């Protein structure tokens, strides 16, 4: 498992780069906001499945996790809507 304090900082930084709130990211990956809040504070290590979904969604948004932090894969970043948000919009439209 990754260093929890580095992981917490990386998730916060990735969210900051993307301009996403905790609520938006949590909804986008299908976890509760308190779960994300605890992860970002380093107070709780996420379950492996949660971590996988979270990191995959951030990577799909163009985030690259490095040894020291995060960065965009390519600049300018392309707009990206998290999967959970897309699915919710589809349900509301259909």
Q: Considering DSSP H and I runs of 4 or more, what fraction of the residues is helical?
A: 55-70%
Uncertain parts: none
Q: Structural class from helices and strands?
A: mainly alpha
Beta percentage is 5-15%
Quote the distance from N terminus to C terminus. 40 Å
Tally of extended strands? 2
Say which CATH homologous superfamily is assigned.
lambda repressor-like DNA-binding domains
Report the radius of gyration as a whole number of Å. Answer: 13 Å
Largest sheet: 2 strands, antiparallel
CATH topology: 434 Repressor (Amino-terminal Domain)
Characterization of the model:
This protein is mainly α and 94 residues long. Helix content is 60%, strand content 6%. It has helices spanning 4-18, 22-29, 33-41, 48-60, 83-93, and strands spanning 63-65, 70-72. A two-stranded antiparallel sheet has the order 1-2. Helix 2 crosses helix 3 and helix 2 (22-29) packs across helix 5 (83-93). The longest helix has 15 residues, at 4-18.
Features:
94 residues; mainly alpha; 434 Repressor (Amino-terminal Domain); two-stranded antiparallel sheet; 5 helices
